[in-house]
Known about the structure:
It contains twelve helices and 31 strands. By secondary structure, it is of the alpha+beta class.
Amino acid sequence: MSQPSLTRARAFEQSEDIGRNDTPNPTLGDIIAARLQRRDVLKGALGVAAIAAGLAPLAIAAAGSARANATRFAFSEVEAGVDPRHHVAEGYDADVLIRWGDPVLPGAPAFDPQHQSAAAQKLQFGYNNDYLGYLPMRGAANPSRHGLLVVNHEYTNEELMFPGLGRQDTKTAAFGKMTREIADIEMAAHGGSVLEVRRDNGKWSVVPNSQFARRIDASTPMRIGGPAAGHERMKTAADPSGREVTGMLNNCAGGITPWGTWLTCEENFHGYFSGKVPDDHREARNHKRYGVGGNWFIWSKWHDRFDVAKEPNEANRFGWVVEIDPFDPSSTPVKRTALGRTKHEGAYVHVNKDGRIVVYSGDDERFDYVYKFVSNRRFDPASPAANRDLLDDGILYVARYDADGTGEWLPLVHGQGPLTEGNGFASQADVLIETRIAADFLKATRMDRPEDVKVNPATQSVYVMLTNNSRRKADQVDAANPRPDNRFGHIIEMIPPGGDHASSQFRWEILVRCGDPAIAEVGATFHASTTRNGWFGMPDNCAIDHQGRLWVATDGNSGSRTGRTDGVWALETDGPMRGASKLFFRCPAGAELCGPMFTPDDETLFVAIQHPGESDDDPKAEPATFENPSTRWPDFKDGMPPRPSVVAITRKGGGRIGS
Ligand code: FEO
Ligand code: CA
Ligand code: CA
Ligand code: CA
């Protein structure tokens, strides 16, 4: 964290092992990274042949058989690389829909980066758009051309947002230039946005002054629902009821329910808290396991609740899945504690064949777990009121992946197995507040940073994006996390028996190990037809279109790490082409690709471009700042900083994406 050129996103990644904190072990990965950077491998005879053929070496051996099989994705691949702009496959438009600072609510002033205020930001589109959810407008003539777009605003990059500020954190600057107004702007730039969007004459736009428009931020009043609501450990000086909380934090990915609500997931909430409780304090074990007191922001200087020495329970009120009704702007968001308290990446909602609701979620930290929640009651499409609190009542499970390709969902139920008072769990509320510790007791499988977990409704397979884990050592590998120093991540496919997602059993296999197939040490397993553009590292979010095809979005590719920006890759999951990957869209420099979401007709793919303009991870790269970003996307105007934005991708002349 002390290197000035370390990007904020990378610093976040490096902090993500606080809870477990294994010692650094950069040996093999450093070799790979160095080789990747120098491209030595491409100088070898095999490499030259690979360049000539546009194929990875592994592809050459099997190219004959690969050509015999057709891809399900009909588009011309984008060339991988790094530059200040975004690129989409030929024949497509990728248009900016809304940027950080654009108006959301009536009365929003025009964006003026030199004169920002918390009051303006509360009316404007927030920073670092992450999850995107599309909900068709009720009664719309065409549900794929008129709807609500819900957007998470995960965190802020102060060094890119504010002129003259530079990076502010504990180690490099001791937050020396931070002011209350900047902190309050940051708080207002977090949270989420609800936008009414329409596609007219082929182009999308945000409906101005919509009755549905809403900004949610770190100060929005929320309710706590489920078994932890009202528990002693949820009470604070400001909320003696333990049922009302102010705001949501670090909302990463999310989900949409079949009853038309938005699930938005609190991920790295620990970074917003400062201070420490004594070692013998009731919350000491809890705070340690979650890394609370992460000190990534200095909001505690002006807001006591973020100092755990003053308010030890406040952190227990974050790390939840929040449910919001976007069709009712006056509705109070609800934190659904039955779904557990983790660093939730997302929350994918599936209606099981028996009508129960299953919610899959990854806990994104090195060596943390994959979870699912199964509701006790059934979804009733005819009765919206009956579904309203479905997510307050059910069983949370954590996954164990066994070496024989089977696995088990272990229930996190108070009183069962080791989840007893003797181990610190006096109630189900304790189990949920300390979900991670309960899962430790159940001996769940420690994974390589679980991000999105999503169901393919066409096959019932569940895809788990495991983004990377450079801290896994050779003696810590297991069948489901088979690579030490896993720099590039992998994707696991889970198969529920008979398509029953409520079952406690599953089978699983690895769909693909990511990274450059041309570097043998990486051990990547893309299909042989995958070109030098087609492979990727660091899978993070994903989307499954309405034809059952998988699209993978990445976080962490860069010039120095993989010779490419992040983007969207189309990945074959079934048949002889399984593991074949093609690049469809790539980000501008420094950005991560979040939130891929198709409209019901598959004619539009919305994507969120997060933290554009960050510097490369190469220590020689210039540090990115407001004055010196790696791109000024999307405006490319002097004095205008890069702006996280939502992009709508459509086919020129119409038609389904990739068909
Ligand atoms: Fe916010 Fe796991 O990415
Ligand atoms: Ca990220
Ligand atoms: Ca993510
Ligand atoms: Ca990520």
